[in-house]
Every structure is written in structure tokens, then in C-alpha cells.
Design goal:
With 659 residues, the protein is α/β, with parallel strands linked by helices. It has three domains: 165 residues; 290 residues, Vaccinia Virus protein VP39 (Rossmann fold, 3-Layer(aba) Sandwich); 79 residues, no CATH class. It contains 25 helices and 17 strands. The strands form four sheets. Strands 3-2-1-4-5-7-6-8-11 form a nine-stranded mixed beta sheet, sandwiched between helices. A hairpin with a 2-residue loop joins strand 9 and strand 10. Helix 4 packs antiparallel against helix 5 and helix 11 runs parallel beside helix 18.
């Protein structure tokens, strides 16, 4: 069945909304349609063994629940069963609600729990109260969702379509629940390509997604491994925050025969329910630019108390974007390199590449990832690829067991032109990566060679050392009327009694000269002499406040020095320079700074926390800069001709209006 047929099936299922109009809010349509679609799918999957299960249920009715469940699971040949003689098609039209709830209760525990996350019973009663339940049941009973007609992959597409329609009808964000299948396929292909050594017959591999959504990455990863290998057992693990997405993912795992206990409900950042898991492959599309304020305390506590024994040792990003926290979480799940290591594919927006200067949480996280040589490649995707945003996005590929030729290097792939236009937009998604472009991207990655689309850099190329450049403080001093008024604003002087303050002003005014003092020591000496007759003492902070109010920056004035005779820095002229990592900061300073500002110096007190050397280390990945191609501007004559043609048109239009 092709994608178009899947879309038609999804559209037919969604047409149930026509029945709900008036009795239900638009935002509730999905909460009725999604669980009924799941129920029908489960029913169709169980159909081939249904009679055998019913016979076994009758024969083992008196056995304990545990024994009975094991026997019925064996008869069902699935990870779940239903022991009711009812089906959607045979529910009574007079007591539909009771029959339906009895039918749901007859599922095995794991399947039954799925419907609790949809608050299914509540909506069943609401449908019954509106006299709509039987009609809805009959409509779903007529839809063929059998595996023979629709594969698990196809069912995933149908669920995505339904969730997107649900999100549109309730003003929710569809992209938070699932990733478009073309991006899932590309990311999975990148992570699993070249991993044949891990996919040998009889081997067991673990696949993990900490933001599982409806299970798209887990399903695609499973299918990919089954296609390219023989006799490999794939163990799927995931955690999801949204209860409805979790329920769909769990149902998908049930149908695939996976252990549903490996799919968890909850917030991955604050409550990692698979804490001991170490996975071979990890795939994730965390929400773009989502703040993590709700879990800030738990995350900050783990960072502070557990350090590198926890997940967030390298640092914390700003609260407005938690993307890098998910990346650190995945890195914490890597198997030891001696045991084969792990590979990660995660989709992020542009912010994690460059947000945050040297010493910031983001920079320290990038530093940790790059200096530990985890980053293999970053692929820039075309825009307009996701349902809820058209922003620039990137696939990061990470590994703690790089092949020799990739060690110490990072590959950047510019795939922004690798797309096809969609015939019809789906939300913000106007473009998709077709198979040919997907293959080309994976090939560029696998070839690991320099081309127009692929650049390879040593890890150090993304690092720099931020040095603080100081220049001397030069001030002139004058007790002019304008500057004397500034004394009123000095907090240290506001504590003086009014008569003392007025006396101070009069004393200072006596120092007014036609030309400002160019030397601080000379002015200070005269100031102290002028203040000598006052019958009150001034504290050091108050003297400092007077000098501050009566001074102005002056590049021609003498340099202000401290008690040891060293030049004082002028904070208003303070600047930073980013020195490429590995280059001598003194050589860089002598070449790039000294010729322009001969009196400048490096503040050697600002050192890096980790290596103790002068300057603070930072890391950023200026992706676009490396692929920038200069396009020379058009000749001036051409631009002038265009402007003249434009003004001539405007003139003609004005003349027509005034005629």
C-alpha cells in the first residue's frame, strides 16, 4: 500500500469527525478517533488467532490469572490477546457502552492499560450520552486495518496523519509528537550505515529513543535492521512525555512483539526511567527550542551533586532551550567503546551549534563532545521539512567508537539543496527528502571525502581561546558646573548631611580652571588641599565618588596607575579576542592587536577553569560560514538602469492618476 493510500485511509478514519460535530469540541476529535483506530488495529492483528484464544480462555477459566495469561498469549502468537467473544462489529446496539468497556477489559494487561492513557472510558460515556457510540463503533468496524492490508510502517503513517489533523483541529503542535518519515528514514540510514559488524546473525542490538513520540524512530530502526541483516534480534526502548503518543507507541511495540515494559511514560530529563540502559544505537528528535524551566531543579541538582557521574556533568544550557540536555542524556547511554560503543543520531535546530560564548554552558557541552571526539558528522537539512516549523535543522551523528580515518575529525555535510517539493503542504512541511537525495546524503557521509557538499575539519578547528584585551584608563578632571552637578548622583555622597554636601560643592568649585587637569595625581593633590578646611572627614569611597563625578575619558590625558605604578584598565575600552585553539596567544596578540592599539595588554588573570591557561576556551561550529560562497554584486550601471526603469514606471503611474 503506498503513501497516498495511507493518506486516504487516514482521511476516511478522520471523517468520523463529521459524526462528532456539535456534540464534541474540535479539540476532542482526536481523543475519540485515535483510541478507536488503535482498538480496530489491535482487533485486526488478533483476528487470525481469535478462535483459538476463545477456546483456550474457556478451557482455562479456573486457572490463576498469571497462568491463564501465559497460555492465552501463546495461543494468540502475539504479545497481547483479547479473551472476549465480542468484536466491534458484534457490539449490541442497545447496550453498546457496557459491551465496549467489557471488550476493552478483556484485553491482556499491557494492551488494556493503553486505553487508560486516552481516558477512553470517559469518552465512551460521552459518546453514549450523545447517542453516537453505536454509529462510531460501526464506522470503525468497517475499516480494514489488518496487517495483510496495512503494514506496521503504513500504520505509522496513518497515525501520523491522524495526529497532525488532531493537532491542527486543537491548535497543538504536531511536530512535538512525531517526526516526518522521510527525516526518520534519513537519520536512521545515517546512524546504521557501515554498522554491519554489529548486525551479525544471532546478535542482539538495542535501539533507544528518549523522545519516542509515537515510535517512528523505533519502528524505522527495527525495519532497517531487519532489511539489511539476517537473524538479528532488535530490542526497542523508549520514553515519552505525552500520554497519547506514549499509548500509540506502546501499542505499536505490542504489535511488533516487543517488550512493552521497555517503553516508559514520563519526562526523560527529570525522571530517566531507563537509568541503567546502555544502547547500541540511539535516535531522537527532541522538541526544538523548548524551555526546561519545569524540570530545572532536578536537572540542576543532578549537574551539581553528581557531576560527571550523572548525565549533565559538562554544563547546562540556558533554560530557554533544552536540546543539548537531550544530547548529553544520549551520550550517557553509550556503551563502553571496548564493548563496541554506540552511535547516536539526533535532530537539532541551529542554536546548539553556536549559542553561548566561551565559558557558557552550551560552549562547555560542545567542548566536552568535541574534545572527547564523539562528533562524527553534522548534516544541514533543507528548510520547511517539519510539520510545525520551517527553520534550519541539523542531524548530528555521534559515536564513541569512530573508525580510524574519522578519529579527531568532524564532517560537515551541506544537504540544504537535497529536497523535492511536496505536491501539497502539510502544515509547515513543504519539502521532503526523496529516496534519491537521501541516498546521496548517506553516500556523502559514507565516502568521507571533501566535496562542495562535504567538508572535513580537525576537532581543534572549532575551538578558540577568548582573551581579554585591556587598554589604559586615561581621564581628565575639572570642577566645571556641569560636572559638579554629577556629584548629586553619587550614592556615596548622598549620605552626607545637606550642609556638608553644600560645603563640599563650594570647596570643589574653587578648583574650576579654564583647562581640565590631564593628570589624576595633580588633580587629587589640589582636590585634597581644597577640601582641607572642611570641618568633616570624607571616607575613601566618598573621595573616589568625587573623582568619578569630576572626570571624563580623554585619550590625550595621562594614564591612570594603581599604587604599584601599573596602568589601570579602562572598562569602557575592554575588548575580547578569539584566538584559534593551538595558536600562541602572544603571537596572535602581537600580530592582530598591537599594531592597532600599541598601549593594549592581555589580562592574564582570566584563565580557563579546566586547563588553567590564559584565556577561556570556547567551542562553536559556524556551519554556514564554511559553506558560504561569495556572490559579487551586480555592476553599478545595471543597478542604476533598474532604478531608472522603476522610477520611470512610478512617474508614468502618477501622471495617469493626475490626468
Amino acid at each position: 500500500m503506498n503513501t497516498e493510500n495511507h493518506s486516504q485511509t487516514a482521511a476516511f478514519i478522520w471523517s468520523v469527525a463529521d459524526l462528532l460535530r456539535g456534540d464534541f469540541k474540535q479539540s476532542q476529535y482526536g481523543r475519540v478517533i485515535l483510541p478507536f483506530t488503535l482498538l480496530r488495529r489491535l482487533e485486526c492483528v488478533l483476528e487470525p488467532t481469535r478462535d483459538k484464544v476463545l477456546v483456550a480462555a474457556k478451557a482455562n477459566a479456573k486457572k490463576s490469572d498469571t497462568v491463564r495469561e501465559k497460555l492465552l498469549l501463546r495461543e494468540a502468537s502475539q504479545q497481547f490477546f483479547n479473551a472476549s467473544p465480542l468484536t466491534l462489529a458484534t457490539l449490541s446496539d442497545t447496550q453498546t457502552a457496557d459491551d465496549l468497556l467489557s471488550y476493552i477489559q478483556s484485553f491482556s494487561q499491557a494492551a488494556h492499560e493503553i486505553f487508560e492513557h486516552f481516558h477512553f472510558e470517559e469518552f465512551v460515556q460521552q459518546l453514549a450520552g450523545a447517542n453516537l457510540l453505536y454509529q462510531v463503533v460501526q464506522r470503525f468496524a468497517s475499516i480494514d486495518l489488518s496487517p495483510a492490508n496495512i503494514s506496521n510502517f503504513g500504520m505509522g503513517i496513518i497515525f501520523e496523519e491522524l495526529i497532525r489533523k488532531f493537532a491542527e483541529s486543537s491548535n497543538e503542535t504536531a511536530g512535538e509528537h512525531f517526526t516526518p518519515r522521510d527525516i526518520v528514514h534519513l537519520t536512521t540510514s545515517l546512524v546504521l550505515t557501515g554498522q554491519e559488524h554489529k548486525l551479525k546473525p544471532s546478535s542482539i542490538v538495542t535501539l533507544y529513543d528518549p523522545t519516542a513520540g509515537t515510535g517512528g524512530f523505533l519502528s524505522e530502526g527495527d525495519e532497517y535492521i531487519q532489511e539489511v541483516s539476517n537473524g538479528v534480534t532488535v530490542s526497542l526502548h523508549g520514553q515519552e512525555l505525552n500520554p497519547e503518543s506514549y499509548a500509540i507507541c506502546k501499542a505499536d511495540m505490542l504489535i511488533k512483539g516487543q517488550a512493552v515494559d521497555n517503553i516508559k511514560l514520563g519526562n526523560t530529563l527529570s525522571d530517566d526511567q531507563l537509568a541503567t540502559l546502555r544502547a547500541d544505537f540511539m535516535l531522537s528528535n527532541p522538541p526544538f527550542g523548548v524551555e526546561w524551566k519545569k524540570v530545572q531543579k532536578q536537572v540542576a541538582d543532578e549537574h551539581k551533586l553528581r557531576g560527571f557521574d550523572g548525565r549533565f556533568g559538562p554544563g547546562l544550557p540556558r533554560v530557554s532551550d533544552g536540546s543539548l540536555l537531550f544530547l548529553l542524556h544520549l551520550v550517557s547511554k553509550m556503551r563502553d567503546a571496548k564493548d563496541g560503543g554506540s552511535r547516536i543520531g539526533i535532530i537539532l535546530n541551529g542554536s546548539p551549534l553556536f549559542t553561548g560564548g566561551a565559558g557558557s554552558g552550551e560552549s562547555e557541552i560542545r567542548r566536552y563532545l568535541l574534545q572527547h571526539d564523539f562528533v562524527e558528522a553534522i548534516v544541514a537539512l533543507p528548510t520547511d521539512m517539519f510539520y510545525n516549523t520551517g527553520i534550519a535543522t541539523y542531524i548530528w551523528i555521534l559515536s564513541n567508537n569512530k573508525p580510524p580515518e574519522r578519529r579527531g575529525k568532524v564532517q560537515l555535510i551541506n544537504a540544504t539543496s537535497r529536497f523535492s517539493k511536496m505536491r501539497k503542504s502539510l502544515g509547515s512541511k513543504r519539502q521532503y527528502v526523496d529516496d534519491a537525495n537521501s541516498d546521496a546524503i548517506v553516500r556523502a557521509y559514507g565516502t568521507f571525502a571533501e566535496t562542495e557538499e562535504s567538508k572535513i575539519f580537525p576537532v581543534e578547528a572549532f575551538g578558540y581561546r577568548r582573551i581579554t584585551v585591556e587598554r589604559p584608563l586615561r581621564l581628565n578632571f575639572q570642577a566645571s558646573p556641569e560636572r559638579l552637578q554629577k556629584l548629586d548622583e553619587e550614592k556615596a555622597l548622598q549620605k552626607l548631611e545637606p550642609e556638608h554636601f553644600n560645603a563640599l560643592k563650594v570647596a570643589c568649585a574653587a578648583l574650576d580652571a579654564e583647562q581640565p587637569y590631564q593628570s589624576r595625581p595633580a588633580f587629587t593633590k589640589d582636590l585634597k588641599a581644597a577640601l582641607q578646611p572642611l570641618d568633616f572627614k570624607l571616607s575613601a569611597p566618598q573621595m573616589k565618588a568625587i573623582l568619578s563625578a569630576l572626570s571624563e575619558h580623554d585619550p590625550e590625558a595621562e594614564i591612570c596607575t594603581d599604587k604599584k605604578g601599573k596602568p589601570e584598565p579602562d572598562s569602557s575600552l575592554r575588548d575580547n579576542e578569539n584566538v584559534p585553539l593551538g595558536e600562541s596567544i602572544q603571537a596572535y596578540f602581537d600580530r592582530e592587536v598591537k599594531p592597532h592599539v600599541p598601549d593594549a595588554w592581555i589580562d592574564e588573570s582570566k584563565t580557563d577553569d579546566l586547563d588553567g591557561e590564559v584565556g577561556i576556551v570556547g567551542f562553536e561550529i559556524p556551519f554556514n560560514r564554511h559553506f558560504y560562497q561569495f556572490v559579487p554584486p551586480r555592476p553599478l550601471e545595471e543597478i542604476d538602469a533598474d532604478l531608472k526603469a522603476c522610477t520611470d514606471r512610478i512617474k508614468a503611474m502618477i501622471e495617469e492618476l493626475s490626468a
